[in-house]
């Protein structure tokens, strides 16, 4: 290995190890980006908080032999502007090993990954956002290789058992956890709320009352309580499934939610119908949506990345979206409790079920067992990677080696707080856990038809139920 950097570490109480950054100037190789990522030179990471020459411990990668000059291809659904912090965080691995990383982001990830594996052209590494899709590809194609022993040992050390289980298929461990996100957020403008005399709602009824008040205060209909968008290429519709999952946790509770995920109750069960009707009370209410964009049907064609932006010009007041949406606000937007935008916790509906938190994450699965690929897998489970990546913002790893001082914004801090709240009930995104044909298939497409074509609730749920694999 050509650049054996010694890591200097400082002890940090509780959360993990704080990485000291090497400030001396030195050359940095380019980590290429392609596809939807827009590419990127990782030599500086301007604005990300990541130093390209961050000190890491190179020793763990020596056992993989001479891998200098090799290349790892990474395929992911994470697009610009969320891609650059990843690209920057890979640079220290390249400095250590001489292995370059080609980053390819795609809005058609879920569909194209299966196509590529079936065609015999998989990437070296895929960052799976859905454990259900991982299961489908493992079982249907046999192309994903089990994680190496070094990676499994690191996961056992740094991650909880539940997170390891999400990357396990039929008793075999394939994919290490990488990041987590919190989806139970509503974005808003603190200054707009203050100017209008509105308070952040703490219950679902208060949130609906606030929505009605916003309608009453803006009789012309040009300003609406809510804005939304579900267009996402081949993944169009996933934002409505998030709405459904958050509401299922709040109306049916975690036990019924688990039964729904595992198909122990049918998709057209009355509990699911109640959740869909509740979501429709907001998303299909012409008085409530779609501020600054159009009517209800405009939700189907509005890109999810841009759907919350009308908050900034006052066309809408609220946008339900995950913690990672922080990366989509324009440059210069202050994300803070007293800033241009912030987020509040999506309120509970039924007190019996406490404070549910919906979340998700990505998992690192490999289609190659070459030494340089395994070395990269190990790096992505390390304290070095997760702290470098956390310093780039919009990243909350469920990794015990995280130094919380590396979290870059209040939303990351709020997310970490919710994920670690012992009184909160956390559940993983249901569509991500369901079989790929449903979770990344009919659930998305039928919810899109529900919006775009005003397809009836019962027809949507019946169609999804009929698509569930027989075994």
UniProtKB/TrEMBL annotation:
The keyword Signal applies. The keyword Transport applies. Pfam families: SBP_bac_1 (PF01547). Coiled coil: none annotated. InterPro entries: Bact_solute-bd_prot1, SBP. Keywords: Signal, Transport. Residues 1-24 form the signal peptide. Gene3D superfamilies: Periplasmic binding protein-like II. Belongs to the bacterial solute-binding protein 1 family. This is ABC transporter substrate-binding protein. It comes from Aquipuribacter hungaricus.
